[in-house]
Structure formats: structure tokens, C-alpha cells
């Protein structure tokens, strides 16, 4: 491998896709997936919305750079960012830029606790179109991964508080998948997956008590394989 | 996002992990997973083995760069490379280098047809240790992904010819997982997955005829999601 001066033309950026869940303003019985985007204040794409991100610094790891730029642009600090994909098409930006994209799910309380600058807004993912660069494509890929690749455990851990009912978990799934799920089938699949564990606690209220569940942390940790944190 | 001159210190490389399957020299009834590595001819790590790879050029996409450097270093040209992960720890190379790693499975006939330079050798993955840079870690992660993330369809398509018996597919799985599998259970799981399709052809020989299967291409194509090729 010989270093060529042409390498100077290639720059490395990081971007982050953040998913959160909220009740829709139109109907509080419905949930929707929302995502923070940042209005660009300079060219290229000045005035357009883009994913939170920035340039990689020589002295920081990829995940550290994603966490820093996310915090700087949106005030968000999720406990864990997972690498999604490296986007590097030749024409994706005016200067040749490889973007390492990370993603995370955040709970509603984390999302609203973040003190965000004025140029940040949360939009429903299904209405996000016309983002800067190839960010529409990145959001489409992240949404597909959210639908297809995450297990019950990860979704519960990402979107819900520590303890939750099966009905709440099902509502999260219905929002992510965009369709209704049969409660009995859902219970069977969740219990078979061993991704969540029944606790001895119940939620009581107007209806009959509903058992509270928690995520199976052991299963979640195994999911990253032999990668050290970077 | 402001461009800083510090970006000039960061370089982008690509590397490729290639898995192939061969009968072990010690016992032809056994299979083993092998991988090509390249002996480095210059510092750093001169004389050590490393994954095939090289620097990204400003005018080529990531997957194109992986394919080019793989071809240049090993003579291999798999039909499809999948992105594995971007490795970017600060201390992984003497100069700050982000490596976008791709991977592919190749069939034994593709592996032996490649005209490789003298400094390329295929080693059993389980005996590969002490590679240059963080390549031990990359191989460990790729092996974990091979074991955990690929479905019956992809493994069949990657390692086997167009038509194969269930016994052959099971032998491939036994080699990848490093353990014996119960033939009846295996048949049930494969058939339930719909990842392979029974053909009307049979392999005949000394034993009773065995039905030949092919991979379900429709399922395989759906697996990449909305990513365009890059």
C-alpha cells in the first residue's frame, strides 16, 4: 500500500440517525417515529435539513466523533451508538467525502430533555424528504434496518423505560412496522425470543393489572460480537 | 461542518475478508474455512501477513476500491462484495487510517482459478494469528458475522455450486459453526426458512439418490434493503 497525494482530496465525516417515538399530535392513541435534523447554515445545501454530524478529528475514534458531533449539534447524548454503514459514493458531496453513519434509538424523555439549538427540529420519519446530500438514502436504509434487523430486546431497550407492559411493547412495534399486530401472536413470539423477561411487578389502574417486563441484558450484550468499542 | 486542515492527516483505506471452504489436507471428510492473506513488502509490519487491500482513490466508490485492490493483490474477483464494518480506532495504524472493510464468500473453484502473486497464501481461519495492524480483530469480527448473521441462502450461494444436496449444505454449516448438526433437525430448519428451493433433479451414485436444491434468489435480493450499489 503506497500513500498517494490524491488521498488529501478525501475527507471523513460522521453522521448520526436518531430514532425516537412519540404520540402523534393528531391522535394520542397513535405513535410515530421521529428523527432530529439540523438546518444547514452554510453551503452546500444552505437552508436544507441534514442529519446531525461533522468532520472526524484525527485524535478521536469514529463512535466518539459521532457522539461529539451529535451532542454539539442537537444536545443529545445516547448511552450507545451503533455503526450503521459507511457511505462513500463519489458524487455524494461536492468534495469527496466518506461518511461513517451511526444510529441510536432514544426514549421520549431523553429526546425532550436535550437542550437543542434553534436550528434543530424533530420530524416524523415518513414525512422526511429532500434532505441535503444523500441523507434521504441514509434515512431510508436506517429505517429499513430498524424494521428488519432489531430484535424485541433492542427496540424495548431503546424506546421504552426500564419496565413496560407487553401492550406497550406491541404499540412500539406497530409504530415501527406501520401495521397492527395480533396481541396473542405477539405475546407468543416475544416470549419465545427470550429477549425480554417477566418481572414480579404489575401496572395497576382502570383495567386489570398488566405484568411488567424488562429487557434481557445478557442477550443484548452478546449481539455486538467481538468488536471492541470504537 | 467546517473543513479543518487536520483532515489532511486522515487517510481512507479498504480491506477485504474472503472466506472459502476446502477439504482439510489431514482428513478429506472434513471441511475448513480458509482466507487469503498478503505478505507485506514494506513498513509498517514488513514481512507480516495482512488482509488484501489498499488506499481508496478519489474517483472510485468504496466497493469498487475493495474490488480493485482485492483483484490487484490476490487475482480474486467475487461477483459481490458486502460491506462489513468501518474500522477507525485512533491507534490502529502509524498514520491515522480509517479502513472500510468488505467481505465475500467464494467457491473453491473461484479460489483456485485466481492467479495470485507469490506473496499471497490461503490459511485456515482458526490458525490465523498475529496479522498486521488490527486485522486479527477484523477477522474475528468477520468470522462472528459469518457464524451469526448469514442465512442458509447466502452460505449456500457463497460456498456451493448452483445445485447441491442437503448433506452438502449441512457439511458447509458444520464447517462454519465448528460443530456437528443433526441431519433431521437441519432439514426441518432449512425447509422452514424457504431460503433454498428443491429442484426436480437428483444426484445419483453409490448411495440412494439425493435431491438437489438451489438457493431462493428472490429472498437473497431482498436482503440488502434500499441501498444502491456503492
Question: Could you list the spans of chain A in which at least 5 consecutive residues all have pLDDT below 50?
Answer: none
Largest sheet of chain A: 7 strands, mixed
Total domain units of chain A: 2
CATH superfamily membership of the largest domain in chain A, which one? Nucleoside Triphosphate Pyrophosphohydrolase
Distance between the termini of chain A: 24 Å
Structural class of chain A: alpha+beta
Give the overall pLDDT of chain A as a whole number.
87
Radius of gyration of chain A: 19 Å
Gross CATH architecture of the largest domain in chain A: Alpha-Beta Complex
Under CATH, the topology of the largest domain in chain A is which? Nucleoside Triphosphate Pyrophosphohydrolase
The SSE order of chain A reads EEEEHEEHEHHEHHEEH
Structure commentary:
- 2 copies of one chain form a homodimer.
- Chain A has helices at residues 62-74, 108-113, 135-149, 152-159, 166-177, 183-193, 217-222, and strands spanning 11-23, 31-39, 49-50, 53-55, 82-87, 97-105, 120-124, 164-165, 196-203, 210-215.
- The first copy, chain A, has 230 residues and is an alpha+beta fold.
- The first copy, chain A, folds into 2 domains: 5-149, Nucleoside Triphosphate Pyrophosphohydrolase (Alpha-Beta Complex), CATH 3.90.79; 152-222, Orthogonal Bundle (Arc Repressor Mutant, subunit A).
- In chain A, strand 1 and strand 2 form a beta hairpin.
- The radius of gyration of chain A is 19 Å and the shape is elongated.
- The model of chain A has no long low-confidence stretch (mean pLDDT 87).
- The interface between A and B is large, with 44 and 44 residues.
- Chains A, B: GO terms for molecular function: hydrolase activity.
- Chains A, B: Keywords: Hydrolase.
- Chains A, B: This is NUDIX hydrolase.
- Chains A, B: Residues 9-147 form the Nudix hydrolase domain.
Amino acid at each position: 500500500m503506497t500513500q498517494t497525494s490524491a488521498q488529501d482530496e478525501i475527507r471523513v465525516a460522521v453522521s448520526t440517525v436518531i430514532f425516537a417515538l412519540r404520540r402523534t399530535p393528531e391522535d394520542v392513541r397513535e405513535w410515530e417515529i421521529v428523527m432530529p435534523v439540523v438546518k444547514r447554515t452554510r453551503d452546500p445545501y444552505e437552508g436544507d435539513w441534514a442529519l446531525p454530524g461533522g468532520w472526524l478529528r484525527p485524535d478521536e475514534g469514529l463512535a466518539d466523533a459521532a457522539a461529539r458531533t451529535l451532542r454539539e449539534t442537537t444536545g443529545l447524548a445516547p448511552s450507545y451508538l451503533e455503526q450503521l454503514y459507511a457511505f462513500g459514493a463519489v458524487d455524494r458531496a461536492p468534495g469527496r467525502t466518506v461518511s461513517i453513519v451511526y444510529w441510536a434509538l432514544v426514549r421520549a424523555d431523553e429526546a425532550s430533555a436535550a437542550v437543542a439549538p434553534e436550528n434543530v427540529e424533530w420530524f416524523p420519519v415518513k414525512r422526511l424528504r429532500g434532505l441535503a446530500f444523500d441523507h434521504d438514502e441514509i434515512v431510508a436504509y436506517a429505517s429499513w434496518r430498524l424494521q428488519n434487523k432489531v430484535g424485541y430486546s433492542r427496540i424495548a431497550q431503546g424506546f421504552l423505560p426500564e419496565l413496560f407492559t407487553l401492550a406497550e411493547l406491541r404499540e412500539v412495534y406497530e409504530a415501527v412496522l406501520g401495521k397492527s399486530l395480533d396481541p396473542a401472536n405477539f405475546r407468543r413470539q416475544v416470549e419465545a425470543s427470550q429477549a425480554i423477561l417477566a418481572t414480579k411487578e404489575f401496572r395497576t389502574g382502570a383495567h386489570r393489572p398488566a405484568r411488567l417486563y424488562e429487557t434481557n441484558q445478557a442477550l443484548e450484550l452478546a449481539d455486538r460480537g467481538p468488536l471492541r468499542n470504537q
